[in-house]
Amino acid sequence: MRGRKQMRLGVYAGSFDPPTIGHLWMIEQGVRLFDRLTIAIGVNPDKKYTFSLEARLEMLRVSTKKFRSVSIDSFSNRYLIHYAQSVGATHILRGIRSESDYEFERTMRNINGDLDPEICTIFLMPPRGIAEVSSSMVRGLVGPAGWQKIVRKYLSEAVYRKLLEHHR
Prior knowledge:
It is built from seven helices and five strands, in the order E-H-E-H-E-H-E-H-E-H-H-H. It is an alpha/beta fold.
């Protein structure tokens, strides 16, 4: 008799300030790849965020409610690899949009591999149409006249409403 197959649990971490359509694409891919996917907001106490942790958690919950295999969580003052170990992850999911992303993510993957060679890092590259979308890009577009129409296409409906509310 064969042993049971290990459940594949992926962790997809970021600041999600705010969650974008690029993040949602990554989440959709993660749902296809893993039995369970934990989306984890990493909180850096030295970083200033536009949205509170609670607001970001809620935006992710609303944006991912259609995925039954997704859970939303957060962690603070820990390395991602240690968080992944604490939830029993088998994989870390990371996105690469550019050469600079690749250089950073490659280094982090190697460090994480030194700390826990059993947790595999998977890199995904988003399609060309959303490859440039990032939270910092969206935040940078807010302000000038007409910004609402410009940022709309980069966010889910729920996140877009939250952004409008935040900037009233």
